[in-house]
C-alpha cells in the first residue's frame, strides 16, 4: 500500500478509463472547441449583416486588390506602423519619458514594470504613484494603444502622477525566472492566486521603495482587480500601502457571465482534460501567439474586408460594441494581444464561473485536504480589504456581469462607489480601448482620485 502524497497523487489516482478512450475524447473536445469558435464568429456576423456578411467579407473587393510587378494579384493594405513597437517604444514615440524596471518575486519570477515618471512638459521629481495593472491575456502594452489624450497612463502622467504599468507572470514581458525555463511546464504552475500572493507584494514594495512614496493609487482591469483582492485579503498589512483603488470590470465573482466562455465552465471539473487539451503549461504556446500577432494585423486593417471577422472574434468574447472600436487601432491590438499565460489561470477562472465563489484554486477534494487542510478551497476574505475601492462596470460586459459586480460591492467594507458606465454598448475591453473611454471612465476616475 502506497502513501498518497502531493507529488505522486496524479500517478496513483489516474482516471480509470483507458488511454485510447482518453486520447479520443481529448481530440473530440479539440474539434468541438474549434467548430464552436468558428461558428460563433460567423453566426454573430451573419445575424448582424442580414446575409450580406459573406459577400462583404470573404469575396474580395476589386478595390482591395492590386497587381504587383510579376502580375500577381495581391492585397493592398497599409499596416499601422505601431504594430511592431514594444511598450517602451510606444511611450517614447508619443513623446513621454519611459523606463523599464525588473522585479524578482519571492518564488523567483522576474517581472518587467514599465514606468512613465512624469508628463510631457513636466520635470522629474517626487509625485504620487499610480500603478496600473492589466487583465488576463493582456500586458502593459494594451494600455498604450489608445490616443494619448484618451489612454489612462498618459492621462495620469499629464495630471502629475508617476505612472507604473505592471506585467503579471507569464505574459510577454514577464517570461523569466531565476531557475525555471518557460519551455518547461513547471514554470506555468500558477494562477491569479500566485499573481496576488507573490507578484503584487514584490511590485508594490519595489515601486514604493524606488519612489520613496508612502503609498500608491492602484487601477486594475479585470484580473488586475481580482489579483489585488487576493493580495489585500491575504496580506492585510498591505492595505495601508494603497491610498485608493479603482477596479474596472473586476474579475472576482463570475457566475453570471453571459458570453460563450460560460459554456466552457462545466469543463472546470474535468481539469485533467483541459490540461491535456491546452497543455500543462502555457495556455497558448508562444508560437501560436506569435502567429496570431503576426498575421491577424495584416487581415484586420480597415482596408481589408476581413476586418469584420476580426471584430466579431473580439466582440464574441467581450461584448458587442463596434461604435467604440477604433478600426485603425485594431491591427495594433491584435499584434500584441492575446499574450501568453498559464492554463491554470484559465481553469481557476472556470472554477469561479461554476462555483460562484471567490476562493483559492480547487485541486479536487483530496488534494485540497492535503494542501489547504480542508475539502473545499478556502475563500478569500474580502472583509479584510480596507482600501477605499471604486468599482466601474460596463452594461454590456459579457464576462463580468453587473450582478456579479453588485455582489462584490456588498462584500467590500470600504466601498467608495460602484459606477455603471453611461453607455449601453460599453463592453469589458472598452475600459482599455474604447474611443470614448476618456469621457466615460477616465476623467470621472481622475476627478475621484484627487479626493484621496
Ligand atoms: C513589422 O515587422 C515585420 C517582420 O519583421 C515586417 O515584415 C513588417 O514590415 C513590419 N511592419 C511595419 C509596419 O513596420
Ligand atoms: C506641452 O507643451 C506644449 C508646448 O508648450 C503644448 O502645446 C502642449 O499642450 C503641452 N502638453 C501638455 C500635456 O501639457
Ligand atoms: C530599497 O532600496 C534600497 C536602495 O535604495 C535597497 O538597498 C533595499 O534593499 C530596497 N528594499 C527593498 C525591500 O526592495
Ligand atoms: C448619460 O448619457 C446621456 C447621453 O449621452 C446623457 O444625456 C445623460 O445625461 C448621461 N447621464 C449621466 C448620469 O451622466
Ligand atoms: C483612431 O486611432 C488612430 C490611430 O491611433 C487615431 O489617429 C484616431 O484619432 C483614432 N480615432 C478616434 C476617433 O479616436
TrEMBL record:
Keywords for the protein's UniProt record, in alphabetical order: Glycoprotein, Hydrolase, Lipid degradation, Lipid metabolism, Membrane, Signal, Transmembrane, Transmembrane helix
Coiled coil (residue ranges): none
Ranges annotated as spanning the membrane: 27-47
GO MF, any single term: hydrolase activity
UniProt keyword annotation of Transmembrane present: yes
Protein's GO biological process: lipid catabolic process
Protein name according to UniProt: Lipase 3-like
Family membership noted in the UniProt record: Belongs to the AB hydrolase superfamily. Lipase family.
Classification via InterPro entries: AB_hydrolase_lipase, Hydrolase_4, Lipase_euk
Record has Repressor as a keyword: no
Residue stretches making up the Serine aminopeptidase S33 domain: 147-289
The organism's place on the tree of life at top rank: Eukaryota
Pfam short name (any one): Abhydro_lipase
Positions of the Partial AB-hydrolase lipase domain: 89-146
Amino acid at each position: 500500500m502506497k502513501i498518497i502524497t502531493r507529488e505522486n497523487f496524479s500517478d496513483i489516482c489516474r482516471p480509470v478509463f483507458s488511454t485510447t478512450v482518453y486520447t479520443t475524447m481529448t481530440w473530440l473536445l479539440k474539434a468541438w472547441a474549434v467548430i464552436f469558435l468558428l461558428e460563433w464568429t460567423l453566426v454573430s456576423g451573419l445575424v448582424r449583416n442580414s446575409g450580406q456578411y459573406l459577400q462583404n467579407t470573404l469575396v474580395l473587393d476589386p478595390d482591395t486588390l492590386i497587381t504587383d510587378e510579376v502580375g500577381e494579384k495581391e492585397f493592398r493594405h497599409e499596416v499601422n506602423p505601431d504594430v511592431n513597437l514594444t511598450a517602451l517604444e510606444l511611450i517614447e514615440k508619443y513623446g513621454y519619458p519611459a523606463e523599464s524596471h525588473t522585479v524578482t518575486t519571492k518564488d523567483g519570477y522576474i517581472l518587467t514594470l514599465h514606468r512613465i515618471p512624469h508628463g510631457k512638459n513636466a520635470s522629474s521629481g517626487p509625485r504620487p504613484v499610480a500603478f496600473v495593472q492589466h487583465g488576463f491575456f493582456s500586458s502593459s502594452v494594451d494600455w498604450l494603444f489608445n490616443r494619448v489624450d484618451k489612454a489612462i497612463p498618459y492621462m495620469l502622467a499629464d495630471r502629475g502622477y508617476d505612472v507604473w504599468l505592471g506585467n503579471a507572470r507569464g505574459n510577454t514581458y514577464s517570461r523569466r525566472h531565476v531557475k525555471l525555463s518557460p519551455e518547461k511546464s513547471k514554470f506555468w504552475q500558477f494562477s491569479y492566486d500566485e499573481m496576488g500572493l507573490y507578484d503584487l507584494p514584490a511590485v508594490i514594495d519595489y515601486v514604493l521603495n524606488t519612489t520613496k512614496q508612502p503609498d500608491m493609487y492602484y487601477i486594475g482591469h479585470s484580473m488586475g482587480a481580482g489579483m489585488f483582492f487576493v493580495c489585500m485579503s491575504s496580506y492585510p498589512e498591505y492595505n495601508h500601502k494603497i491610498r485608493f483603488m479603482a477596479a474596472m470590470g473586476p474579475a472576482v465573482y463570475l457566475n453570471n457571465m453571459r458570453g460563450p466562455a460560460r459554456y466552457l465552465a462545466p469543463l472546470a471539473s474535468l481539469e485533467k482534460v483541459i490540461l491535456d487539451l491546452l497543455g500543462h503549461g502555457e495556455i497558448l504556446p508562444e508560437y501560436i501567439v506569435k502567429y496570431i500577432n503576426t498575421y491577424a494585423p495584416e487581415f484586420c486593417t480597415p482596408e481589408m474586408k476581413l476586418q469584420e471577422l476580426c471584430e466579431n472574434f473580439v466582440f464574441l468574447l467581450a461584448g458587442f460594441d463596434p461604435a467604440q472600436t477604433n478600426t485603425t487601432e485594431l491591427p495594433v491590438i491584435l499584434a500584441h494581444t492575446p499574450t501568453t499565460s498559464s492554463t491554470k489561470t484559465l481553469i481557476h477562472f472556470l472554477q469561479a464561473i461554476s462555483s460562484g465563489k471567490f476562493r483559492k484554486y480547487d485541486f479536487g477534494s483530496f488534494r485540497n485536504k492535503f494542501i489547504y487542510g480542508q475539502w473545499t478551497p478556502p475563500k478569500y476574505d474580502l472583509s479584510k480589504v480596507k482600501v477605499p475601492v471604486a468599482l466601474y462596470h460596463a452594461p454590456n460586459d459579457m464576462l463580468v456581469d453587473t450582478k456579479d459586480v453588485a455582489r462584490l460591492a456588498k462584500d467590500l467594507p470600504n466601498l467608495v462607489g460602484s459606477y455603471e458606465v453611461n453607455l449601453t454598448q460599453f463592453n469589458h475591453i472598452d475600459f482599455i480601448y474604447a474611443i470614448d473611454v476618456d469621457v466615460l471612465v477616465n476623467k470621472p476616475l481622475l476627478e475621484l482620485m484627487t479626493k484621496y
